[in-house]
Amino acid sequence: MRILVTGSEGMLAGDLIPILAQGHDCYGENKAALDITDAGSVFKAVEGYRPDVVINCAAYTSVDLAETQRDLAMLVNGIGVQNLALACNAYGVPLCQISTDYVFDGSKGAPYTPFDNTCPINFYGESKLAGECYVRWIARRFYIIRTSWLYGGRGNNFVKTMLRLSTQRDEVRVVNDQIGSPTSTVSLARAIKVIIESGRYGVYHVTDQTDGRLSWYDFACEIMPLVGSRTRVIPITTDEYPTAARRPVYSVLDMTATRLSVDYIPLMWDVALAEHIDDIRREILNEAALKA
Ligand SMILES: NC(=O)c1ccc[n+]([C@@H]2O[C@H](COP(=O)([O-])OP(=O)(O)OC[C@H]3O[C@@H](n4cnc5c(N)ncnc54)[C@H](OP(=O)(O)O)[C@@H]3O)[C@@H](O)[C@H]2O)c1
């Protein structure tokens, strides 16, 4: 397949493009080359590449800043996706949109299925829901793939923050009353590949597998010993760590339909995390070897 990936310099795209390139012709466009908020550029890119599928990894992802930069968040996550859906339709191309657990309010208290009602409680979630709506309203063939608590080699993410703090502090305070599922960008990239190869259009939930009771605190407790740190992790409540944007207290995504629809078995979250930490170690060793 010929695959066009937008937002190619982002965290997910960093692992997605090389994984898709194993077996496909994959072309990445960064924000400078293809700004999805510019309808003309989007149409030109889809016309130029004539891909078999477009995967949208471009997004506005600053959850707290989105509360004050509402227009920008909506422009990128809503209207940008509208542009992509219109262009994909014009050239008969399926669109794969990456979305988030933050389209849910977290009040269900049980894993969310793709068939549950959405109800975001922060503006980032609202803007991502707008993107989902445009895809459903416009695109004739689409995949919407929701994921959560994403981490990878590029960009800012929770694992990177913990790694940094593990060398700077004796203790870190981490929220223990928000429950969700971490997802490594490598796991998600593997799942995206399987889903777009399946031709089975629809809404998918993809995360690494947990027991449905994992908090940010539990996640941090696993990271510290894996990186050989003695930094103590102290559990705190959301009230003790105020942020501009509210977060759902429970946003585990149910993957039953994904498992039954396509040939993808999620990795356990701790196995995916250990693989990621090993990758980081290998990179550090390689860099040191190059410098020596
Ligand atoms: N990170 C998470 O925890 C998480 C959780 C659930 C779902 N997701 C979803 O997963 C997807 C990938 O996220 P990610 O973490 O890889 O995000 P990311 O690292 O922030 O990457 C997004 C990329 O899009 C680019 N971009 C921003 N505005 C653009 C525009 N107008 N046109 C083209 N490109 C633009 C960004 O460039 P600049 O950096 O230069 O602005 C960045 O390179 C997103 O849809 C996100 O909503 C993420």
Structural notes for this entry:
- The protein is 42% helix and 15% strand.
- It has 292 residues and is an alpha/beta fold.
- The protein has a domain at 2-156 and 182-209 and 251-267: NAD(P)-binding Rossmann-like Domain (Rossmann fold), CATH 3.40.50.720.
- The strands form 3 sheets. Strands 2-1-3-4-5-9 form a 6-stranded parallel sheet, with helices on both faces. A two-stranded parallel sheet has the order 6-8.
- Helix 2 packs parallel to helix 3 (70-90).
- The longest helix has 23 residues, at 269-291.
- It is globular and about 55 Å long.
- The N and C termini lie far apart (41 Å).
- The structure holds NADP nicotinamide-adenine-dinucleotide phosphate (NAP).
- Residues 6-7, 9-12, 31, 35-37, 57-61, 76, 80, 98, 100, 128, 147-150, 155 line the site of NADP nicotinamide-adenine-dinucleotide phosphate.
Keywords:
292 residues, alpha/beta, Rossmann fold, six-stranded parallel beta sheet, two-stranded parallel sheet, globular, binds NADP nicotinamide-adenine-dinucleotide phosphate
